[in-house]
């Protein structure tokens, strides 16, 4: 193995975004000849920037939009360095240098540094409260601001500006889009489509200031508003700059690589430096810099084949068409979109149904198109514009006739996809072609969109291509399509079985391993996927706690290694501190271990514990042994912490012993696996110093006993906990907590927080099964006690097992040396 690794060439990718990682995915399909290292400035693995607006509005989390998890990098032998900025490339020595002073050699280098927001060169642009909208950090800054300020301004009426405005309105802010032009998205839409879009967004609560040139950001150190060229002002304590993007080419320019607007590349994506390539929004090809996803994947396909040594046609540029979903509205444009004297213009404008379609002809040739509302014909029109197709009576009837309106007919859909070339892109976000999808439908027997998503990646990002994927299914499967679509929505594309189907089969057929479940239930993918394997492992452990052996390899990397991986590849160690209480001896142990193993930071967490950050993977078993404390499970879908106030032991307002109860509950439930992470808090009085109202299970003491609150969430999607019941004594409280936890364990979907679970099944149902039905309550308590009986501290288990240490903490390093 050592010889094989040494023979592999070193490929370094600078930039961990969609374009660069997509190129890596294509390289991995072609060859295993490279030892790959990836540097990304952000602290996250590769995620879908197209869905940032969903993170901003709170309907998705960063985990929901991850395209390639840390497990993916590890499984493909890729060394990932997140939160790491490369500041210099020595093209002669073939070496890159990071801001932290580290360096790495390369045989092949790919630069995919993307783009950055264009910041207006106006006074006040650097004030606090002025942000861009290009990454997760921008989202976090806007979410934080929403808790403090009420008025926001978004400068720029393009796609990103409108998506930012939508998210800010969802966060409860009074939001105004300030646009220099008189029409929105003037580079994609004509006046009619832009007007329809503006009217719809106004109905959604967004305000507009059109034809306004911003000349200054007002305020002291913090933004307070905008001043326009006309002299008028707009109050805004948050200002989002979304007036365009510029290629991020500074690194290449500083390293002596030829740049213009972007990093200059030839038709094989090669830069002016030997063995250095560029791809994505950072590069300039034939004088053009592309800001849309589809051209970037066209570039990536050529780049991958070039680097892998495969035959490839040159990249000659992309004919740009734009199909977007803006705040729930579909729009499309391709080629020329503004009327000109030499155009013949065909239009359909239906205000009642909110549909607009325009096709531009020059000498009967289709040279452009714009659509709003119904974009069913987008793939057909994109191809016709690209090929200069000729309008005919038959084509006119298909596009404008027949009265099919928004829904269209089956024949029309089939003809649209039938005319697409196999190499034509269906999923622009992930570079999936029609040929890719047709092949997996025919060769692998796929019959649902979810199956295709797992196999090819199509629809896994923005979801805008889902209707086209469905049309391809209908086209390939013919009459069998409708029957296939009647299958139930499975937990992932590997199966049509739902969570309830799977748990029922596990219990009825007494299945005890992941492979056994997959075999008995006819999994399509023999190895499953990163979505279903952890879920099956949890369901098996929940159903058969005494028989099921935890399948560590089915867990995500944090749970396999019992520590949180950090952006620089090190880990954080959080020992358990029951109820947030510690001793001088424990503090000395923590301090000594932090010194000995070079912790980069020692931090008190929000859950009243101490976190040792920056510990090397190989040192984890040793530091756990040195600490002599149990795992705090800061990485797990399990009980994280039980936060407490000082209660009646010290507080003059305390009515109950919150510390004692918090320690008791934490010691009892600390190692119990849950569908998702689980947080608790115990307050000694209604003053709520331990913040029980935002916990999965919150307890408040009063003179008459305890109040139990459930389903709270203090994360991105904040939710206040609801009162489940009141109990009179400590024993009843512990039993109630156990019954509630077990009911959640047995009925929750894997990765479903209690806040979402409670919304789905309803508080009254929980009360019925956990509180009112005495027999069911007793059975739940019995089953949770059975599950608790087998649990042991994972840190101690690894410290005492040389085999586990070798397998999970040393083997990978030995193999790579």
TrEMBL record:
It holds the Pfam family Fer2_BFD. Residues 321-387 form the NADH-rubredoxin oxidoreductase C-terminal domain. Gene3D superfamilies: 3.30.390.30, 3.90.480.20, BFD-like [2Fe-2S]-binding domain, FAD/NAD(P)-binding domain, Sulfite Reductase Hemoprotein, domain 1. Residues 566-627 form the Nitrite/Sulfite reductase ferredoxin-like domain. Residues 636-775 form the Nitrite/sulphite reductase 4Fe-4S domain. This is Nitrite reductase large subunit NirB. It comes from Paenibacillus aurantiacus. Its cofactor is siroheme; FAD; [2Fe-2S] cluster; [4Fe-4S] cluster. Keywords: 2Fe-2S, 4Fe-4S, FAD, Flavoprotein, Heme, Iron, Iron-sulfur, Metal-binding, Nitrate assimilation, Oxidoreductase. Residues 425-474, 491-540 form the BFD-like [2Fe-2S]-binding domain. Pathway: Nitrogen metabolism; nitrate reduction (assimilation). Residues 10-283 form the FAD/NAD(P)-binding domain. The keyword Iron-sulfur applies.
